Amino acid sequence: MLYPVYIYPGDANTAHGIVFPDFPGCHAAADEWEHIPAMCQEAVEAHFAGEPATAVPAPSPLSELQNNPEYTGGVWMLADIDLGKLQSAPVRLNISLPANLVRQIDGYANKNGMTRSGFLAKAASMAMAD
């Protein structure tokens, strides 16, 4: 989703400052212009870590922000934020699995310092990454 961000250009000694008007308190910095998109994504992921998906507001229209006197001395940019990468708060669910599979999952998870939920989340993420 495209979110407006305001960039305060840096120089040889200072990184470019990034402000997210839709996410108060969320800031980022990047030494190079080409690193700005990745730093925007990283900052938003950290800002909303553990929050429910409903905590992420819709983007404001750039036309509503561009004349705001709070933003001077920089440039506007639209950052493409992948909201699917945000780690939202856990959701409790009820699933059915064969008892012997649950024992195997628990044994593997315990041996590897994980919880059953952590193992299943990791396994599902890995399966879908292919």
Automatic annotation (TrEMBL):
UniProt-listed InterPro entries: HicB-like, Ribbon_hlx_hlx, TTHA1013/TTHA0281-like
Chain ranges of the HicB-like antitoxin of toxin-antitoxin system domain: 3-124
Name of the protein in question: Type II toxin-antitoxin system HicB family antitoxin
